[in-house]
Amino acid sequence: xxxxxxxxxxxxxxxxxxxxxxxxxxxxxxxxxxxxxxxxxxxxxxxxxxxxxxxxxxxxxxxxxxxxxxxxxxxxxxxxxxxxxxxxxxxxxxxxxxxxxxxxxxxxxxxxxxxxxxxxxxxxxxxxxxxxxxxxxxxxxxxxxxxxxxxxxxxxxxxxxxxxxxxxxxxxxxxxxxxxxxxxxxxxxxxxxxxxxxxxxxxxxxxxxxxxxxxxxxxxxxxxxxxxxxxxxxxxxxxxxxxxxxxxxxxxxxxxxxxxxxxxxxxxxxxxxxxxxxxxxxxxxxxxxxxxxxxxxxxxxxxxxxxxxxxxxxxxxxxxxxxxxxxxxxxxxxxxxxxxxxxxxxxxxxxxxxxxxxxxxxxxxxxxxxxxxxxxxxxxxxxxxxxxxxxxxxxxxxxxxxxxxxxxxxxxxxxxxxxxx
Length: 421
Prior knowledge:
It contains 17 helices and 12 strands. It is α/β, with parallel strands linked by helices and 421 residues long. A 5-stranded mixed sheet has the order 10-9-8-11-12, with helices on both faces. Strands 1-2-5-4 form a 4-stranded mixed sheet. 30% of the residues are buried.
């Protein structure tokens, strides 16, 4: 075996009780490197269960274990495992320090794939490193299981609860940690029912649940019920981004209905022309409008439309978040709800009723805003949606859950002798 390659392997992948005997480059199909291993002279095999040395019994056929590619060339270890006679476990295959049970790849290669899977889609990783999609999946699953078993769950004082649409008619319940300096995905559960969120509190335990001081959530009643039951000492804060989403949904309903009515009455009227292509200039913040959308908004505001009344109510509500006092914010909220109820716009009246029903939880925002980053949930959700778009081919909840934990869970990793990316 060439001294340079042997020295390199002993530096990054020293295997106790084994030596690198020889290597060869096999041509064809892009080529591959095969490295043959053998037991060190005088060493005994170890039981794969208790890892205690045991006398040899016989030897199995040679197996190949895929290793980290060297210089872009697929690399494999070749070794014929021994069977040993363990006093406690009987006749078993010896412990192989580079292997992951019966899987045809080394532990180093599994961590290599898992590292790259944080940056690329699983399909891209499998194609780039000439392995199977299943190998990438198993590697990420191994990394997630290892990290989840060693998570530090101390000091969780602020959490965010949200649901996200995953597939047609299917949702995920997500719980984030949003402490200053530590923002990560803590828990994923299927569906958006009370039992989904209750699983998180069972996983966290009653003692750690009692340490939570702030919980940011939307207005989904099953979540509010569980939070009141399992974290009664925490301050439940309603997420302002969900309130803004409800406002935008109401404006969109008013605009769509009015557009249909105007077109049915007179397709060539000024109102019909102005309402055309007006959706995004009504939903976006003024400071985010393009030059063309700014002109379109000015044309809209010059017309006496129900859509414009709804838009002005939405813009007026932005002042609510600028109050320093929760008491004065509460007075403003009541005045706004009164104006919305008198607007004769049913979608805006629905929003007003919703805000009145949840007024105490909305006002909790003023107490929590200086102590916790309430916008972190929306930021983490945006990252999550980007990862879901990359994994559009996933069909099972298990695969989605593993992917989300891997990319957003900030999971610990073992100390490796060499980093891959």
